[in-house]
Design goal:
The structure is a homodimer of 229-residue chains. Chain A is mainly alpha-helical and 229 residues long. Chain A folds into 2 domains: 47 residues, Homeodomain-like (Arc Repressor Mutant, subunit A, Orthogonal Bundle); 133 residues, Tetracycline Repressor, domain 2, CATH 1.10.357.10. Chain A is 67% helix and 2% strand. Chain A is built from 10 helices and 1 strand. In chain A, helix 4 packs parallel to helix 7 and helix 5 packs antiparallel against helix 9. Chain A is elongated, with a radius of gyration of 22 Å. The termini of chain A are far apart. The interface between A and B is large, with 57 and 59 residues. The first copy, chain A, binds a DNA duplex (30 and 30 nucleotides) through helix 3. Chains A, B: It comes from Streptomyces pseudovenezuelae.
Chain lengths: 229, 229
Amino acid sequence: MSSTKPAMRDALVAAAFQLFLERGYEQTTVDDIVALAGVGRRSFFRYFPSKEDVVFPDHERCLTDMTAFLAASDPGCDPLERVCEAVRLVLRMYTENPTFSVQRYRLTKQVPGLRAYELSVVWRYERAFAEYLRGRLKGLHDGTLRADVIAAAVAAAHNNALRSWLRSDGHGDAEQAVEHALGYVQAAFGSAGAPAADAPPEDVVVIVSRRGAPLWRVVQEIESTLERD
Amino acid sequence: MSSTKPAMRDALVAAAFQLFLERGYEQTTVDDIVALAGVGRRSFFRYFPSKEDVVFPDHERCLTDMTAFLAASDPGCDPLERVCEAVRLVLRMYTENPTFSVQRYRLTKQVPGLRAYELSVVWRYERAFAEYLRGRLKGLHDGTLRADVIAAAVAAAHNNALRSWLRSDGHGDAEQAVEHALGYVQAAFGSAGAPAADAPPEDVVVIVSRRGAPLWRVVQEIESTLERD
DNA sequence: CACAAAGCTGCACCCAGTGCCATATCGATG
DNA sequence: CATCGATATGGCACTGGGTGCAGCTTTGTG
């Protein structure tokens, strides 16, 4: 099986986090880690391409899982909804190990190098969203633009909720927070993507403004909404 | 003056790019660069904290400029519009040196380390947007969430347009492309932020619908629009 | 038991980045 | 003009992440 092998890998992660937490990330050398884990230095780099990778041991797996999840989508489903579903998948990875996630959050928050690394990881998730959306929105006006913007918005919503949960030391309800944040994005782009292959082009524009709104405001709103096509 | 001093800095950038373009980034050592520039190795790190920084020589300045620009905003202006204005500022930095920007784009496209670095740079722009928007949307429902999501959307729109311009080798019209992309974002979040302090609550409802539009579509649109508040 | 494949280790090496100190350059001042 | 001090530069040695290689051990298999 795939879960019984990596005893050494887990030992390295454990040793690394123990040292990171008691001395700090930059004050810990790879030699320190392998000494504590009782393995050779070379073996560390067999399991982790770089020192930073040991902080995000499961992201690679999660990323491939998520990509596969998107690839296996029903071609008729709502693309935005599907991406939101993928986000919930990612969130689950964090909530499965709350204490670990919180510890990692504290580390990444104060070590610039780790923050940069995390950024590149998050970016890969966002790219996965965008690639999927590009495929679904292909042919539509501004398809790739929409795909990129929506992917970024979804990722930002996820991060916002996740970070607030992490700041609460894993006490709040992460699922609910993410649900709320995704709701906001879905409201903003509400099926602004592909209205499913079966729905023909439509021309419904709804503007809700408030009594007493300055006229220029209403006009602007109409213009900008129309421009969406 | 501030523009007459950094002869050495410019020489280092020139030497670095010459070597990067003819040998590749990773095949070029810092020693190679300083040898070509005819300066001491230590001086390189005096001007650039890391080898990667030499690829983005002006981002630090641009970032502080942009932050100052946002900080100097009229408190009554439309926040989203202001952020879009800031984006145009960033774009200008790219379009001022098209050939340089295109060369850099080719480098970052194929060197993972540089891509990661660029990511962290872009992230700082996005954070500047988000911080500004957080200040402007403070107190509103989901203020920070909106700020983060809108900032991400704006940055994504900018990047989408910028990258398409860079792929065209700087031939297309970058301004127009970014304008179009920003238009999409403004349509999606059309002043969903603060309706300016002077605008009191309004209650105007305008519905533009094409004859024969499916009713569920209208309802969905109404829901999503109402939720924007 | 023999043998091969895979995993682990140590070693030597490259290169980015840093701290420290010596030197040079230049402007102000007596 | 000489001197002094601030600032810019250069050289040097050192740390530490990351890699290629070659040898050793373990494990599974006939």
